Amino acid sequence: MDRIRIKGGRPLNGTIPISGAKNAVLALMPAALLGDGALTLSNVPNLADVQTMTALLRELGMGVAHDTAARTTTITGPATAHEAPYDIVRKMRASVLVLGPLVARHGIARVSLPGGCAIGTRPVDLHLKGLEAMGATIAVEGGYIEARAPEGGLRGARIIFPVVSVGATENLLMAATLAKGDTELVNAAREPEIEDLALCLMRMGARIEGIGTDRLRIQGVGALVGGEHPVVADRIEAGTYACAAAITGGEVLLGGARLDHLGAVARVLREAGVGVAEEPAGLRVSRMNGLHGVDVVTEPFPGFATDMQAQFMALMCVAQGASMVTETIFENRFMHVPELARMGARINVHGASAIVRGVPSLSGAPVMATDLRASVSLVLAGLAARGETIVNRVYHLDRGYERLEDKLAAVGADVERMK
Ligand code: UD1
Fold first, then answer.
1. Which atom belonging to ligand 1 lies closest to the Cα atom of 125?
2. Which residues are catalytic?
3. I need a surface site. Which of 27, 156, 182, 374 has the fewest CB within 10 A?
4. Which atom of ligand 1 has the smallest separation from the CA of 121?
5. What pLDDT tens digit does each residue of the chain (419 aa) get?
6. Atom of ligand 1 nearest to the CA of 128
7. 8 A C-beta contact, residue 316 and residue 290
């Protein structure tokens, strides 16, 4: 199993190109199930999760061709099968995003229930209730969700989400594009990846209003076609490297990153003493002086992203003063805390909040984590720590960070992958 070795203490300087967003492409690829022609995505990141989604779409009978040099993926249908097997879904929860498109286009889907994951129980009840409101019949049998559209196909509906859910918004948005009549999604998630999905669906012929707001109105159409769509830049990758620049006291240009997509993360970084400036080529992030402790609460976009919580906590470990980090989205998302503590961080967890008391420096150690963002927070801590840090279980990082060690080494980090 690969490991990453980091010798800390070097400020990062230079440009880091930001890849296409993992969470956008994982919704855009299933959207291809809806169209009659080929969907070509550009700016596609080369990530383990993209390979998993590729395997799933191929399992459904879709053609998926990656041009790695051009960074494009072309997906052709139609699907010839409708089952998302347990072996793929258990690897990646985003597999559930084939559910809405399959039911809308083919009238039937059988998708393994994802079950729990390292960061919490993560139910899919809102996805299922939404499809039911559109007339689908849902049964859970043998660990699988079986969904069937009524005769004549799904019908438009007014769906009010009691909780903001990225995945449920995406699944129902996709399903609604081919439903009969109008659908309204109220209290919809507003993450930039949803906007990206909606823009792609529009290119395929969908009729959607309210893009970028928490109220999406979809007028169902008879059919969608293929199209071309560039994947939006990954705001979480950008935020992660912003923390890398900040924790090492460097200055980096995050190529292609957008300030408006960082939401509260940009504001909080500035409050902590990090310069964040938008330039034509991307975002310039710099830290000239000391870091200050800032309190954060994770929230749906544009609030502070839960996917940035672990990385920001790593930063707060070396800030002056204290910081309270409250996680409101997932119930078990502090697995990085004991590992950061092994590197000398002072953190106490009280329920959903962690109090971080900044220390002058961290010290390198062998560490590991059980999910993607927790793993990368340990890389950040390693970049700032005295001595050597070995991050184990690198396959978590490979799910969501493209060429992490190359990107960091190119801006001056002493980091290498050990096979
Ligand atoms: C997506 C992201 C993930 C991010 C999360 C929150 C992808 C592939 N993944 O995950 O990286 O951390 O958004 O920004 O885009 N919930 C329910 N019932 C449901 C669905 C969700 O109760 O049917 C709850 C969840 O348990 C959680 C909250 O709603 O507490 C938000 O989850 P959701 O936005 O759905 O996350 P995902 O789409 O799974």
1. 23
2. 117
3. 182
4. 26
5. 899 999 999 999 999 999 999 999 999 999 999 999 999 999 999 999 999 999 999 999 999 999 999 999 999 999 999 999 999 999 999 999 999 999 999 999 999 998 666 767 789 999 999 999 999 999 999 999 999 999 999 999 999 999 999 999 999 999 999 999 999 999 999 999 999 999 999 999 999 999 999 999 999 999 999 999 999 999 999 999 999 999 999 999 999 999 999 999 999 999 999 999 999 999 999 998 899 999 999 999 999 999 999 999 999 999 999 999 999 999 889 999 999 999 999 999 999 999 999 999 999 999 998 899 999 999 999 999 999 999 998 889 999 999 999 999 999 999 999 98
6. 23
7. no
3-state DSSP helix/strand/coil % of the chain, to nearest 5: 35, 30, 40
Return the beta strands (E) in 376-413 as ranges: 388-391
- Around ligand 1, the residues with Cβ closer than 6 Å are 23, 26, 93-94, 122-127, 163, 165-168, 189, 193, 306-307, 329-330
Q: Which residue's alpha carbon is nearest to atom 27 within ligand 1?
A: 329
| β pairing state of 39-42 and 72-76 | antiparallel
d(CA 221, CA 224): 7
